[in-house]
Each structure stands twice: as C-alpha cells, then as structure tokens.
C-alpha cells in the first residue's frame, strides 16, 4: 500500500510563499499520478493541482493558476507544491493523494490519501 506524508505547511503572511512536500513510501512513485487538494472546515474538498506519473502533464484550479507550481522527483519519491503570492483565502488543510491512471482534480478518483498539512495565510 502506498503511504503519503505531507509537510511544509505553516503560517505565512499574505504575498508570501511556501513549498509543500508529499513524501511517499510503500511502492515506487513512478506509476502514480499525484494530486493536491485542500479543504476548510465545513467545506468540500477542492482540487488544487495534479501531475501525471512522468511529470509531463499538469493541471491547476483556476484559483491558483499562475501562483502555484506542482513538480515531482520520482527518484526521491516526493511531489512538491510551490505556492507563491499566497492569499488569506488559500488558508486550508492541504492533502496529497495518489491514483493509477491519468491525473485528476476530482477527489473521488483517488486511491490513497495523506493526512494533510495546515497552511494559514494571515498577517
């Protein structure tokens, strides 16, 4: 079974940057598409970004396009989410998730989930 562990969350001021990491273990990362989601209490889980198994295909939610960048290093079994120009509305718990097949921003399409890391954007 694939395990995923997120890290890199924290408190940042508006306009600041954070880089989230999703470290995987259990199986080689090469065969999995990885997605980042976020969720605030009482709200639905939202797809933020996703990347194909080889890294050649990426997609972003409109709300983060131009500010967030997803990347992966299969040799390190890690996927990253670079978040720039952060806004208070980016405050959420961020989750990474994995699936076989094409990358997706749909939460229901994922096979494995991490436990999340909290990002707080506030002055």
Word description of this protein:
The protein has 123 residues and is mainly beta. The chain is built from no helices and eleven strands. The protein has strands spanning 3-7, 10-12, 18-25, 33-39, 46-51, 58-60, 68-73, 78-83, 92-99, 112-113, 117-121. The strands form two sheets. Strands 2, 4, 5, 6, 9, 10 and 11 form a seven-stranded mixed beta sheet that branches. A four-stranded antiparallel beta sheet has the order 1-3-8-7, with no helix packed on it. 34% of the residues are buried.
Task: Report the order of strands and helices.
Answer: EEEEEEEEEEE
Shape: globular
Unreliably modeled segments: none
Structural class: mainly beta
Mean pLDDT: 95
What is the number of strand segments? 11
Radius of gyration: 13 Å
Query: Could you estimate the helical fraction of the residues in percent?
Result: under 10%
Query: Helix tally?
Result: 0
Largest sheet: 7 strands, mixed
Report the β-strand fraction as a percent range. over 45%
Summarize this structure as a short list of keywords or feature phrases.
123 residues, mainly beta, globular
């Amino acid at each position: 079974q694939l395990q995923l562990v997120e890290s890199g969350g924290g408190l940042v001021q508006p306009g600041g940057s954070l880089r989230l990491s999703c470290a995987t273990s259990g199986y080689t990362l090469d065969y999995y598409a990885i997605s980042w989601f976020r969720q605030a209490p009482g709200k639905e889980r939202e797809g933020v970004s996703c990347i194909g198994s080889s890294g050649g295909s990426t997609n972003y939610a409109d709300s983060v396009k131009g500010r967030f960048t997803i990347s992966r290093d299969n040799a390190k079994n890690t996927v990253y989410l670079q978040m720039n120009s952060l806004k208070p509305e980016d405050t959420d718990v961020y989750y990474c998730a994995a699936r076989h097949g094409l990358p997706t921003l749909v939460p229901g399409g994922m096979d494995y989930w991490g436990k999340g890391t909290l990002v707080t954007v506030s002055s």
